[in-house]
Each structure stands twice: as structure tokens, then as C-alpha cells.
Amino acid sequence: MKMSALSYLTPSTRACIRGTTSLVSALAVLASSAVAAPDLPQDPLRDADFLHDGAPSEALVELGRLLFFDPILSGNRNISCGTCHDPARGSGDGLALGIGEGGVGIGPDRRTRDGVIERVPRNAQPLWNIGAREYVTMFHDGRLEPDPEGTFASGFWSPAREHLPKGLDNLLAAQAMFPVTSATEMAGQKGENLVGTAVAEDRLEDAWALLADRLAENAEYSARFVEAFADVDGPGDIAFVHAANALAAFQTVAFRSDDSPYDEALEQGTIDHLPKAAQDGFRLFYGVAACARCHSGPLLTDHGFHAIGVPQIGPGKGHGADTGYWRASGFKDRLEDEGRYRVTFEESDLFAFRTPSLRNVALTGPWGHDGAFDTLEGIVRHHLNPRASLARYTQKDGLLPDLDHVTEQTGAGSQLIFRPLNAARRDAFDLRDGWVQGSPELTARIADEVEIAPVALTDAEVAQILAFLDQLTDPTARDRSALIPDAVPSGLPPQPAPTHPPPTGG
Ligand code: HEC
Ligand code: HEC
Description:
Radius of gyration: 23 Å
CATH class of the domain at 51-111 and 125-257: Mainly Alpha
CATH superfamily of the domain at 51-111 and 125-257: Cytochrome c-like domain
Strand order of the largest sheet: 1-2
Helix content: 25-40%
Distance between the termini: 35 Å
Structural class: mainly alpha
Bound molecules: heme C
CATH architecture of the domain at 51-111 and 125-257: Orthogonal Bundle
Strand content: under 5%
Largest sheet: 2 strands, antiparallel
Number of strands: 6
Low-confidence stretches: 1-37
């Protein structure tokens, strides 16, 4: 256990806890002996805790803003970063599993159209405070991280290995290199456009160069890159790395969110101003419910990886063909998402996912790496007894958007064709979405790795924890659609549309 998880306690209680074997039982003793409210866990967030000390140059941020909402970065020019990270929808898309390039509509109305081949296999991560320096990995499985040994020139470990270029300002900039090289998210399929073809043929450098060319050919973008970067004197100097650095600067500023009642508590050093139920929830969170074992620090995450048995829905981000699996299931690749294990191949990382930050968590549903829970209460209750929750989980209708038009790609070269799925293949898609949860053997594998011991809380206590989680909502985060520019340099309609109505409900 990390020391920081205990730092809110007084030295004497800390010593008492370290002497015992189980944090949960120690804190149970603590709570039952009616100690005073624990001190607050940490210092408030400061500018220095963010990239560029929270203040990148205006030219860089404005360029990043235009790029973030401009479909020019997608192969078929039909989707932007903002489509999946909508500033009016908690910086996500409001879907359990989104629909990438080729889809139409925004948020819960998003549907497939011609050319969509599959669902995005994981829930779009919220971007709140993603520019905080404390982030040491990116993605649900942390597959992008700094490489201090300098194995790769880029300075980062990533799925692109030696292909990731030099010159990336920080981890968040390195992340921005990837959505554009995902066929499903942004690039499109082989034969549809040059970027999609380069990606399909594993020519990542070419894909990035093609996108940089698009930007260089645009007079407004060229001028803005020259203004924002000392090492860009003309269109010929623009590389995709520059775009990535600008996207990171924008996200750092746009999604900073540290104006919640909880921040006020950190600032004041007291929780007295929080509603009574939230104060009780706070004590449970940092006490008997042991949430802070993993959700610690100012962002309420330890940035570690833990297996908590969230049910697997959708196609899964599987890996590797396996003949035995194929015979049993008819699916070539594993459908269950093995999380951190996909990156490290260490048994202890099976089904472990990065602890999400809980900032603005009330705004970021559906919850879990695959959006399996459509209520905050649902995912909180799941934690209380993950194995039992996994066993009784049934996927609610409507959680996954319908795949009205799914296309498959067959043939190659000049024979390449896209065709609509026939009814039998269409059924196979539905079967695949529910395959893991329908298999007792596969869910047992997920259950076996769960590392949380059951915690018994009353309904009233669950309500108190939810009341505390509500205090993590920064009111300014509810609708940041003002970030969306009215127009973008490509002349394409920005995504989401600048005037789109804010979502109704919570
Ligand atoms: C089709 C939807 C989609 C689009 C488009 C998209 N993203 Fe994402 N984003 C996701 C999903 C899904 C994940 C989680 C992926 C995973 O863990 O494998 C993610 C993860 C991220 C993360 C990591 C957050 C974290 O906590 O580690 C960042 C940052 C991010 N996206 C920024 C961007 C930027 C910048 C763009 C545009 C260049 C973009 N995204 C385009 C869906 C999308
Ligand atoms: C052992 C570490 C651990 C403990 C203890 C823990 N969590 Fe989590 N929590 C996680 C991980 C890991 C996830 C993401 C799982 C996934 O996506 O599959 C998560 C997800 C969540 C989410 C959903 C966030 C999102 O954006 O999808 C909420 C809410 C949450 N936890 C609240 C709590 C509360 C409340 C407690 C205490 C009752 C708690 N957690 C205890 C590790 C933990």
C-alpha cells in the first residue's frame, strides 16, 4: 500500500493501522471507536500541478482547440476528437461503447451508417484534469507510458514502439498520436482514403505525414502553426507531432476542473460546508468502505491497475487468435478484455484496469471500462461485492447503441468490396456483444482475479457515498460546449455542432 493512502490520518492512527494486516478491518475498528472526522487527504490542485504550469501559450491552445473539433484529422473527414469527448457530455460520448468514424449523430443518438465495421471496444475516457502532471500512463490499460531508459527515440513506450516520432512535449501529446491511427475511431478502412490504407498496411509514419500534409495545405492552419511553434517557419515544417503538442495544450486548459465543493474543502482544510450526508459519505469513502485504497490523491486515483470484475459487454479489446477459443466460440480472437495484462503479460495484471479519477464522476456515465453500468449507484454497488455483482449482471436494453448498418470488408486490392452483413452475420454481432457474460467459464476467469473483499454497507450508507461523489462535480463542468468553435479552418462542420442543445437530465 502506498503511504499517500494513509496521509490524511493523524500519525498515531497511521501507526495503529500499519501494525495491522488488513486496512479494511483496521478502519472498521477506527470507525466503530467514533474518532473525529479524518483530516483532508491532500493539498488542493495548483497551476504547477498541470502541464505548462497550467498556462500554455494562447496560440498553442487556440490551435489545439480548432484541431480538437475539426473532422480534418479523420481519414474520411467525418469525425473529430470532440465527437467522442463532447464538452457538453462530461467529456465523453454518453454511450457505453461508442461508434467511431462513419457514424452519424452525437451522444445517445449516434447511429451507424455505411462503412461502420464494429463498435469502439472501450468506453471513451473522460478528459477532466487529463493535463495534470501526475498522470503516468494513458488509456484504460496504461499502454502508453514514459520510457525513462530511452529504449525508443520518442521517450515513450507505446503500441507504436519505434515508430512513434521524437518531439512530443509530454505524455498527453503522445496520446494524441493514436486516435488518428485507429481504423475504427478516426482513420477509416483500407481503400476508403489514403490515411486508412496506410494504417491498414501498418505504415504509421505515412498516416501521420498524410495528415500533416492536409494541415500544411490549409492556409489558416499553416499560419497558426507558424505562430504557435518556434520551429515552424512555413508549411513545409509542419509535422503531426506539432498538432499533437497543440492538442495536449488545449486539453490541459479546456478540461481542467478543480472548482468543486470538494476543492473548496481542500482549500479550506475542512468538510464542514458539505451537506451532512456527503460528510458521512466522505468518512465512509476514506474509512470503512476503503475506496481511498485505490481512489486516492487529489484526482481520486492511485494511477494503479486493479481487477474489480466489471462485467464485459461488447466486442471486447481482445488479443491474439487462439484455436481452442475459436472451436468453442466461433470467434477467432478473445472477446474478454484482459486489461493491463494485454500490456505486461503478467498474470497479476489479468483483468486489471487503471483506477479512474472520480472528478466529475456523476457526469461521466455510463461507467466502467466498457460502460457496463448506466447508473452511478450501479457501479458503486458493484464494488461492494464484485463477484456477486458479476454473477447476476444482465445487460440492459439500450445500453449499447443499435448497429443498424454494419458493413464487412472482403477481398483485397482492386477486388476490395464493402458489403452489408447478411442476417446470419448480423446475428453473430449481437451474439458477440453478449458472449462473455453468457459464458460461465469466461466470467469465472474475470471473477477469479477480483481483488476487493466484500464490504457490507447499508442502503443509507450507499446513499451517503453517492452524496459525497456529487460533491466532486465542478458546476462549470456540466456544460462546456462554449469550447466548440463556430467554424474550423477546414471549412467542414465542427463536431459536435456548436449549437447542439445541451443534453437533458444528469
Ligand atoms: C471514436 C471515439 C473517439 C475519438 C474520435 C477519440 N477518442 Fe479519445 N478515447 C476514446 C476511447 C474509447 C478511449 C479509451 C481507449 C482505451 O483505453 O483503449 C480514449 C482515450 C483517450 C485519452 C486517454 C485518457 C486517459 O485517461 O488515459 C485521451 C487523452 C484522449 N482519448 C484524447 C483524444 C484526442 C485528443 C482525440 C482526437 C485526436 C480523441 N481522443 C479521439 C474514444 C475516442
Ligand atoms: C481495489 C481498488 C479499488 C477500490 C478499493 C475501489 N475502486 Fe472504484 N474503481 C477501481 C477500478 C480499477 C475501476 C475501473 C474498473 C473498470 O473500468 O473495469 C473503478 C471504477 C469506479 C467508478 C467508475 C468510474 C468511471 O469513470 O467509470 C466509481 C464511481 C468508483 N470506482 C467508485 C468507488 C467507490 C465509491 C469505492 C468504495 C466503495 C471504490 N470505487 C473502491 C478500483 C477501486
